[in-house]
Input
Amino acid sequence: MSLEEQIKNQRIQSKNSIVTIGTFDGVHIGHQSLLKFLKVTSEKFKYDPIVIVFKEQPRSIIRNDKSKLYLSSLKDRVNLISKFISNVVTIDFNESIKNLKSEEFIHLLKKHYNTMCIVSGENARIGNDKKLIKNINPKIIKSITTKIEYNSNDIFSSSNIQKYIENGNMIKTSKLLGRYYSINGKVIEGKKRGHLIGFPTANMLPNNKLLIPKIGIYASITQIKDEKFLSATSIGFNPTFENDEKINIETFLIDFNKNIYGEKIKLYFLEKIRNEIKFNDQKELIKQMNLDISYIKKNFLQDKKIL
Output
């Protein structure tokens, strides 16, 4: 489906609009700064603010790389963006869009949304000619760039956050996202080894498009529908029992005793508390798990209340 057809299907109308464009993976602090700037600028010029969100990372389509993992699902991205701007247009970045030049893309925005201005970060580009938005001829369309003021050496980018998640640094991740990193999935039946040693766990089958944190044990919060529970989450291969062939995500919900097989849950990662360890026997494992639970209850109980 062409860009024009996708725009028509979403039926957002505007007399005069101001637009920003991107994948907005993670909707991190940098994205939030851009969205706030878009809202303020729209109010200043009395334009309708519109956010155009590519469902897929354009680079992954251009390079035909289907292995791309995301920091947030499209649904979560739209929900987070909607807290700032209500008009959100989601676009499949496909072959027809990949071949559009910057001026062709802009022409369609002007035709359907009466777009008067594009707001972007300093290095944002548009079209297969990779035109810097800030360098677009003002006779074609006005562009306004906004610069994020860094309070530290950290860069607010999805790729930078991805590195922290891959290294298990959830404190840095939370700082750059402006919230706890989370993944969602369905509870499936496992091997019930946790139940046998007094720590029944929920085994998650995660969204396969989301980035999974580094192997280890994490303080976490588990959300089931509208309820949230403090939890300990293990990501790994269960080396004490036997090395499983694939990574397992198992979470022990503290002070919880219900059957949740088949339920959809969301895991929020607060902090990595230790590496995965192969213990000599089950007694050592149980002892360490009790220490893990005590540490989490002592240090993160307040986090559940403020999430």
User: Anything to note?
Assistant: The chain has two domains: 3-146, 160-306. The chain is about 35% helix and 25% strand.
